């Protein structure tokens, strides 16, 4: 054994070859010449040393041999450099010392003193790229350190070197390093000089991804630079996306004016229409009529029905088809009372399910058939309102054909039915703009009606019909109700509607009026009303996506009493940074969640007495609070509203999900955090956890999220179970997920004796099969680069109500669930030709892959499947064209895409 090992050890000692020894001798000779007294030998020796270093070959994981052998002479060369007089030889020697300082020569002291940079600046400063990428990277590190140490002095001496480094990087496939350097030294304005047609896409994509992690001022600089570069190279669709991300309407209008290609103009219009972004077109523009038609979203219903016919799903579905109740065992209670037990709450659930499952198809098996009125009358009061409003979902986006079947209910003698028809009219017009303004004409007269029920339907209908339009005339019609209305329900709905209309654009008139009403109610019992949460949401929606601009209203709310102050300030912060993924804001919200709430002495005493009374009742079976003598479930709230001192923490829990949903890493973090919070948090926070978890995975049924929500749906706390059931519907919305549907059927059997939980489970079943699997609630679109404010607003409204589900959603305001209609969008890929007619083409569909900063031309999708358009895209999927005969006018295949034929 020793005989075998011994030669190996000896070979290791003798690993230096004869060539290495010759190189060492040669380098020592060159050093002697440089440090010697013969001036005529110094320059040739320096040139030879540079040549040996440049031509040395080595592996990527080891130091070049000339640098390794010269390390021992580092101090001698530095001493020689100090003794030399100024001249070309001194500069050449500085180049060599700078290069040696990059490696092990000089040790940590050389790196600490930034010798590499110092001697580089004293050197020739020519062709620095010839020393290689590692030398450039070392210079970049030391430049950043020097810049931060003495910015003003460094600027004069370093700018020339920075120009050389950026020029080298941009011509040697190191554009990412060039961007990093310029961002670190705040000289990003120098970059456009080095952007070319070959590297602009990679650089712009990287800069956009970096903009998420900088402050607002720097973010604006980066995005403006990126937008200008896209325009410079004719990438109008990418420039449009950047302009929408900045919320820069002037830039959007300019892109429309400078773009001359008809197909590209159509694609730009489809992007703006999907985001509900207002555009001012020049009326003299060619094809302006078609572009206006696209921007108005009047095409939605036609194209959606085309998709439905192509998929052969026009046949309407009944709630029973969704529930598949014949697969459920019949509970003993129903065997005793009869299988066809008619429950007001379950009829309400069926009405909602019927609307969402058949949304946009124009027909169903309950309301649009002969005798559809009978179904409405099987409900009570607000149930009748909700049943009638389902007609709006059935005729969603179909303004021309949907108003007639709803109009007849406006002549009903029952105010609840009439109010439901008003709400239905608003839902039909949601996201669609019509020159005739039918919604304003039909609903405007009822805003000031004597009946509070009619007022609510008209106000909410107008809010949905003109959501995101920023129409000043609609705001002026609704806003006077905020200070003047006596009913807090009307105040809440009016404030929320004003917030929906002005979402994403700060409206000082709306915010000032709503804020004044909140301050007026401060210190009164009215502040405890659940409707005040809708008022707070209306105010917050005005500041959606404004980031730092939310500081003014936040300061104004400091005079409010706790816990409402924390609640509204947290909501303002949440809406201002929604979808940004801002880590600092998430940390701030998590800090609020983790705070211990100190209850006033009186509240502590009441809570203790309540716990004692509850303990006495344990062991006795109590009848459900919301059942009448005949065992038929009513829709009245079983609990009296109480002041919740943890409401600020609950709002912060929801806020963490809203802010983090802009990026995948944030979503994964949220799932882990909420797993712990739901075990150890306060009751209010536990109620919010299922909602936050669902919001972070809307229309994306991740198995881990489904499992956790399913466990919570069996929770002993009724409100946690209700919210978890709703959350299951939200994460499976429009996916037709078979595993989730089977789980909900089992949940329905488990909660057969619990009317509130069963109602929400039924509604969740309807959401999973929403639009028969063709619709989605996902807020991100256009390859997940844009977050739609209106979709977020539509999702947030019911979620805020469900933070305390009994007073509103499970009480007298189930119609608030129809606010989800503002978030409805088809999850399609529809390809059109240059004349906007459907064009079937082959596409590859797979999971999207992040290619930011990756070298070469990496694949953008994984797990490829080939289909013919139109196709349905699941969350996180991306598509590519199969054939080279067509090319997309936009940057991605997502939503409605216009294709142009490639000329051979």
From TrEMBL:
Q: Which UniProt keywords apply?
A: Proteasome, Repeat
Residue ranges of domain RPN1 N-terminal in the record: 27-328
Q: Family assignment?
A: Belongs to the proteasome subunit S2 family.
- Indicate what this protein is called per its UniProt record: 26S proteasome non-ATPase regulatory subunit 2
Q: Which organism is it from?
A: Phaedon cochleariae (Mustard beetle)
> What residue spans carry the region label Disordered?
601-644
Leader sequence segment: none
Query: What is one process in the GO biological process aspect for this record?
Result: regulation of protein catabolic process
Assembly notes:
Component of the 19S proteasome regulatory particle complex. The 26S proteasome consists of a 20S core particle (CP) and two 19S regulatory subunits (RP). The regulatory particle is made of a lid composed of 9 subunits, a base containing 6 ATPases and few additional components including PSMD2. Interacts with RPGRIP1L. Interacts with CRY1 in a KDM8-dependent manner.
Q: Output the InterPro entries linked to this UniProt entry.
A: 26S_Psome_Rpn1 (IPR016643), ARM-like (IPR011989), ARM-type_fold (IPR016024), Proteasome/cyclosome_rpt (IPR002015), RPN1_C (IPR041433), RPN1_N (IPR040892)
Specify the domain of life of the species encoding this protein: Eukaryota
């Amino acid at each position: 054994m020793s005989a075998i090992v011994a030669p190996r050890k000896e070979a290791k000692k003798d690993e230096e070859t004869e060539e290495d020894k010759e190189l060492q001798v040669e380098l020592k000779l060159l050093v002697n010449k440089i440090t010697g007294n013969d001036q005529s030998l110094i320059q040739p020796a320096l040139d030879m040393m540079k040549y040996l270093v440049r031509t040395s070959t080595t592996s990527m994981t080891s130091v070049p041999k000339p640098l390794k052998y010269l390390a021992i002479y580092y101090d001698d060369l530095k001493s020689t450099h100090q003794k030399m007089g100024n001249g070309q030889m001194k500069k050449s020697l500085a180049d060599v010392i700078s290069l040696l300082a990059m490696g092990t020569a000089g040790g940590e002291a050389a790196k600490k003193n930034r010798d590499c940079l110092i001697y580089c600046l004293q050197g020739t400063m020519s062709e620095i790229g010839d020393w290689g990428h590692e030398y450039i990277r070392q210079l970049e590190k030391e430049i950043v350190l020097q810049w931060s140490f003495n910015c003003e002095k460094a600027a004069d001496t370093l700018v020339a070197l920075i120009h050389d480094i950026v020029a080298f990087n941009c011509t040697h496939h190191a554009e990412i390093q060039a961007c990093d350097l310029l961002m670190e030294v705040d000289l990003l304005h120098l970059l456009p000089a080095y952007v070319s047609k070959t590297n602009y896409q990679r650089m712009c994509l990287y800069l956009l991804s970096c903009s998420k992690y900088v402050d607002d001022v720097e973010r604006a600089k980066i995005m403006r630079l990126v937008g200008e570069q896209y325009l410079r190279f004719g990438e109008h669709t990418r420039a449009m996306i950047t302009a929408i991300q900045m919320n820069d309407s002037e830039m959007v209008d300019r892109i429309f004016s400078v773009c001359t290609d008809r197909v590209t103009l159509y694609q730009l219009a489809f992007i703006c229409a999907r985001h509900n972004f207002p555009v001012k077109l020049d009326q003299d523009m060619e094809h302006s009529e078609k572009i206006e038609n696209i921007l108005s979203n009047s095409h939605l219903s036609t194209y959606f029905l085309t998709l439905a016919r192509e998929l052969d799903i026009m046949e309407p579905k009944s709630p029973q088809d969704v529930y598949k109740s014949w697969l459920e065992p019949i509970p003993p209670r129903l065997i005793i009372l009869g299988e066809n037990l008619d429950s007001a709450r379950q009829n309400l659930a069926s009405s909602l399910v019927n609307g969402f499952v058949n949304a946009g198809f124009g027909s169903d098996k309950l309301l649009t058939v002969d005798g559809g009125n009978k179904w409405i009358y099987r409900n009570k009061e607000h149930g009748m309102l909700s049943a009638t409003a389902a007609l709006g979902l059935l005729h969603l986006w179909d303004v021309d054909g949907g108003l007639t079947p709803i109009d007849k209910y406006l002549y009903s003698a029952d105010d609840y039915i009439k109010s439901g028809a008003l709400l239905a009219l608003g839902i039909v017009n949601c996201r669609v703009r019509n020159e005739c303004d039918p919604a304003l004409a039909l609903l405007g007269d009822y805003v000031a009606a004597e009946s509070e029920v009619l007022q609510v339907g008209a106000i909410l209908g107008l809010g949905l019909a003109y959501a995101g339009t920023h129409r000043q005339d609609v705001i002026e019609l609704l806003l006077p109700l905020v200070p003047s209305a006596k009913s807090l329900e009307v105040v809440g709905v009016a404030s929320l509607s004003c917030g929906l209309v002005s979402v994403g654009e700060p409206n000082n008139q709306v915010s000032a009026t709503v804020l004044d009403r909140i301050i007026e109610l401060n210190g009164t019992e009215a502040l405890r009303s659940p409707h005040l949460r809708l008022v707070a949401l209306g105010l917050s929606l005005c500041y959606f996506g404004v980031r730092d601009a939310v500081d003014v209203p936040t300061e104004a709310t400091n005079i409010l009493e706790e816990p409402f102050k924390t609640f509204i300030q947290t909501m303002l912060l949440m809406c201002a940074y929604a979808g940004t993924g801002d880590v600092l804001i998430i940390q701030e919200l998590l800090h609020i969640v983790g705070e211990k709430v100190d209850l006033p002495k009186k509240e502590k005493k009441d809570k203790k007495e309540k716990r004692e009374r509850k303990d006495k009742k344990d062991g006795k079976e109590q009848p459900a609070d919301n059942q009448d003598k005949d065992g038929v479930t009513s829709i009245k709230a079983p609990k009296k509203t109480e002041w919740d001192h943890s409401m600020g923490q609950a709002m912060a829990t929801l806020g963490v999900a809203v802010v983090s949903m802009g990026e995948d890493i944030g979503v994964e973090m949220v799932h882990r955090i909420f797993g712990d919070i739901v075990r150890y948090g306060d009751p209010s926070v536990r109620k919010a956890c299922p909602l936050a978890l669902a919001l972070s995975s809307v229309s994306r049924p991740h198995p881990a999220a489904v499992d956790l929500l399913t466990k919570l749906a069996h929770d002993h706390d009724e409100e946690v179970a209700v919210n978890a059931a709703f959350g299951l519907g939200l994460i499976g919305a429009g996916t037709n997920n078979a595993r989730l549907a089977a789980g909900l059927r089992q949940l329905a059997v488990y909660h057969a004796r619990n009317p509130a939980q069963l109602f929400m489970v039924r509604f969740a079943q309807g959401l999973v099969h929403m639009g028969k699997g063709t619709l989605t609630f996902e807020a991100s679109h256009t390859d997940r680069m844009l977050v739609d404010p209106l979709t977020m607003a539509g999702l947030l409204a019911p979620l805020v109500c469900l933070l305390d589900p009994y007073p509103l959603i499970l009480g007298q305001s189930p119609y608030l669930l129809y606010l989800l209609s503002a978030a409805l969008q088809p999850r399609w890929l529809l390809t059109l030709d240059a004349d906007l007619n459907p064009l079937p083409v082959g596409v590859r569909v797979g999971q999207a892959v992040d290619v930011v900063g990756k070298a070469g031309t990496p694949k953008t999708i994984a797990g490829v499947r080939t289909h013919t358009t139109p196709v349905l895209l699941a969350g996180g999927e991306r598509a590519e064209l199969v054939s080279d005969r067509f090319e997309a006018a936009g940057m991605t295949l997502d939503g409605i895409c216009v294709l142009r034929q490639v000329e051979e």
